[in-house]
Amino acid sequence: MEQRRTRLIAALDTRDPGQAETWAAAVSPHADAIKLGLEFAYAAGFDAVERVAAGRDLFLDLKLHDIPNTVGAAIGSLGRIRPAMLTIHAGGGSAMVAAARKACDESFPEDRKPILLAVTVLTSLDEHGLAEMGIKDGVKAQVLRLAELALRNGADGLVCSAHELAALRAEFGDKPVLVTPGIRPRGAAVGDQKRIMTPTEARTAGSDWIVVGRPITGASDPAAAAAAIAAELSA
Ligand SMILES: O=c1ccn([C@@H]2O[C@H](COP(=O)(O)O)[C@@H](O)[C@H]2O)c(=O)[nH]1
Question: Which of 110, 114, 190, 234 is deepest in the core (most CB within 10 A)?
């Protein structure tokens, strides 16, 4: 069987448009896409998102989670940004995911429709964190439950940790796009992430895209850090 190609998204988490542009230029020869998310969009605004993303594939990680009408309308406002990938929270429920699907279909030209990704369980959560919210049957069960809900209502793929990849592939096959943050090259600081894997482990487990932020942006040479991860993915 042919080995799946695992691609790299560099998460550029900053408030500063100049810093984001510098990082984007540095990592772009090595990363397949850049991520801009809540921190950047709230601080710098969507004009800056559009500028930094120009000519690049953008993973727009807004993790939308609201009533269906609001999420649909928010996605309808993103037409000018044209992200390659867009995130919502699966926990918003069936109607919210369906509204997001409809808005993607109606707001973007056929050839520029973003891949709609539903976040299952944040990689910063573990069994204890879920139990605090009343979810007592563990991370894997919750990821599978939310994955089924999201895919049934039109999501193209899922955001999960690399630990759930095998179970998701077994249940839903090859088609869903599986994106895994919580990636740490060997020896990198873990920070607030709880469910982590190395780039090599995530690739072996079947990730389509890994998302890596601080191990790149916190490195003394972000370009070299991104290049090393890309090399690990293609080894
Ligand atoms: O479950 C999730 C969903 C999204 N993220 C985002 O990925 C990056 C990871 O950054 P690191 O610095 O490599 O930890 C970050 O932008 C998150 O918002 C996630 O970590 N987990």
Answer: 114
